[in-house]
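Dear Dr. L.,

I hope this message finds you well. Following up on our conversation about the binding site, I have prepared a predicted three-dimensional model of the protein together with copper (II) ion. For your records, I am including the exact sequence and ligand specification that went into the calculation, followed by the structure tokens. Please feel free to forward this to your student if that is useful.
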Amino acid sequence: MGVPERTPRTRRGRVGKTAALAGLVAVTATGCSGEEILRFGWPDGVTPQADDMRMLWTWTVVAALIVGAIVWGLIFWSSAFHRKKKGDTEALPRQFQYNVPLELFVVVVPVIMVCVLFFFTAVTESSVLAEEDEPDVEVDVTAFQWNWEFAYPGTTTPEGEPVNTVGTSSEIPLLVLPTDRTIEYNLRSTDVIHSFWVPAFHFKRDVLPHPDKNNQDSTFQNTIDQEGAFVGRCAELCGSYHAMMNFEVRALSPDKYDRYMQLRSQVNPDTGLPYTAAEALTVMQGEGCDEQLCSPTATTTSPFATDRTLRTGSG
Ligand SMILES: [Cu+2]
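The resulting structure of the complex is given below.
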């Protein structure tokens, strides 16, 4: 007797084991946690509004995968078990046209799916765009070619103006905001159309000149649920230096934010002028605020050389 022949059963067992092992490697080698897998590639957000959008995304993908599994299953089932066999004499397999119940099914089911997706999209959209009558903080965002200005109505500097931060070609403007408070953003442009975009908010909105005349809802609200520095960009092509129109959101805990506003409403004894954003943050660093969180300059992006006659290593 020679070597016993491998039975189909053990071969199937080996294939099963290899497939299971490959699946395990695929899941573990990517280093995804359960939560990350359910994100299906959706990036991390820092607002409850971003979490709402993530939920919609997760369940939409789950629904799509269920539909996909049914369709793939039917394709494999048909191609595996309904192949043309030897001895089949008919030119065509059995036909199913004019099957009214089946045709009703393939019309009604997709319509129901579209309605369900539409419903949850509308619910998520209205929760993301919801506005409170009395937000805790208001900020007037002014976009211009090619920078940003952030003013805080309701605050006053010793010069009698609202606290205000404006970017220059050598300084990225810092939009300092509190965590865990409702913030209202009032957007306005002084020239062309820009777009206020903070990727970590998962939200952007066009910034128009004369928003009322242009019938544009120029405000939105959100709450930031973690401290940190988040890059902001202009997301509407607005001219030569559009790509350089960056800013940084600096989200500070409410007590740090209050301290920041308190400083900005005072005169800096060293300069005799109201504290600038950078000066106020430097003072707060001295008072124990984290070096990154209270950095006087942007940490997520840096100014670009706007002098086109300069040639640097990167072009
Ligand atoms: Cu712009």
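In brief: Helices lie at 8-29, 34-39, 48-81, 100-128, 254-264, 277-286.

With kind regards,
A. P.
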